[in-house]
Specification:
Elements lengths: L3 E7 L6 E3 L5 E3 L4 H4 L8 E7 L10 H14 L6 E5 L5 H11 L6 E4 L12 H12 L9 E5 L2 E4 L4 E2 L8 E2 L7 E3 L4 E3 L20 E3 L7 H7 L6 E5 L7 H12 L4 E5 L16 H7 L2 E2 L5 H13 L4 H9 L2
Parallel strand pairs: 1-4, 1-5, 5-6, 6-7, 13-14, 14-15, 15-16
Antiparallel strand pairs: 2-3, 7-8, 8-11, 9-10, 11-12
Bound molecules: aspartic acid (ASP).
Aspartic acid (ASP) binds next to loops.
Length: 324
């Protein structure tokens, strides 16, 4: 059996934390995964790098860019796969960022934990071992970035954190789980449509995400137009609708040439224009808003950032964001 070298990049998160005497979870100076005894496939060796040691709330696009650059380099360093350990709070965003920007076939697997190293029922080591198994399996090549926790494999494009504390927190509401790990096997259940990948150089853009609600007025949107935002994501109602007042605010932003991207605040389903009245998706689109079809607000924000960094405007930006 040929030897397979897996690059492991630790970034922090609960998987690298421990519980103190009061039961509070805190960061560890040394990542407990480093000294842990783990069971990995016989022909696999690890090259471990502690790229960050941060709670994932402290991770933003600048850190994602550092990871992107390290992974681009790793692609020509003879690795068979890559594992990134990460806090679960923003794991889906880092996974999506890398999935949208890295045009590489190597398996790239993100994992994390909901319970820290010394908590009863800690899931860190188990998920770490699972991620190494998936990253060293040939079937995982060319599938884009994968998220592995709790015996499940999810596609970065669709995965989201669904529960505050349950270890079964990650789900893919639109597509369903992409694969499963059993004691002996890794089973993929479907292939995804091809990804649209663009490179990234600069992440210095200001793109807020706003959630719509019943009775939303347009005041905040108009105030935002006077700030230095590069675009805005609105988590709209249902299939992608807003109150009349918010729709007027959207028109105001668009008249100032600020891209407005519509996603749904609903947890499941695809956002698309359906209703033709003031605030309805059809009229929002006619006014110039862009529908980002199948992603949530936090991912749409990264996608807009990537699109703008690639100088996409007007129809090209629309097409990019709409692509599934
Ligand atoms: N707050 C933690 C983090 O994202 C949660 C976790 O890792 O599960 O860093």
């Amino acid at each position: 059996m040929a030897n397979k070298k897996i690059l492991v990049l630790h970034t922090g998160g609960t998987i690298a934390m421990h519980q103190d005497g009061d039961g509070d979870v805190e960061t560890s100076e040394e990542n407990p995964l480093i000294q842990a005894i783990i069971k990995i496939p016989q022909n696999v060796t690890l090259q471990v790098e502690n790229i960050f040691n941060l709670p994932s709330e402290h991770i933003g696009p600048k850190h994602m860019l550092v990871l992107y650059q390290r992974l681009l380099k790793a692609n020509s360093e003879g690795f068979a796969g890559i594992v990134v350990t990460h806090g679960t709070d923003t794991l889906e965003e880092t996974a999506f960022f890398l999935d949208s920007t890295l045009d590489i076939e190597l398996p790239i697997v993100l994992t994390g934990a909901m319970r820290s190293a010394n908590e009863l029922g800690s899931d860190g080591l188990y998920n770490y071992e699972s991620a190494i198994r998936v990253a060293s399996d040939e079937q995982s090549s060319g599938r884009g970035v994968l998220v592995v926790l709790n015996d499940e494999i999810h596609a970065a494009r669709f995965v989201t954190k669904t529960h505050t504390t349950n270890i079964a927190t990650f789900g893919s509401p639109i597509s369903g789980v992409m694969g499963i790990l059993t004691k002996r096997q890794i089973i993929y259940l479907y292939n995804l449509p091809k990804r649209h990948v663009l490179p990234i150089h600069n992440v210095n853009r200001n793109i807020p995400v706003l959630k719509a609600y019943a009775g939303m007025d347009g005041q905040l949107l108009e105030l935002l137009a006077a700030t230095n935002i590069d675009g805005i994501i609105i988590e709209a109602l249902g299939a992608g609708n807003l109150s009349r007042e918010a729709a007027t605010g959207v028109s105001y932003l668009l008249s100032r040439h600020i891209p407005v991207v519509i996603v749904s605040r609903s947890f499941n389903g695809v956002a698309e224009p359906v209703y033709d009245y003031l605030g309805g998706g059809v009229q929002l689109e006619r006014a110039g808003a862009i529908f980002a079809t199948s992603i949530n607000g936090q991912k749409a924000r990264l996608k807009l950032l990537i699109g703008l960094d690639n100088h996409l405007i007007d129809e090209r930006l629309r097409k990019y964001l709409q692509t599934f």
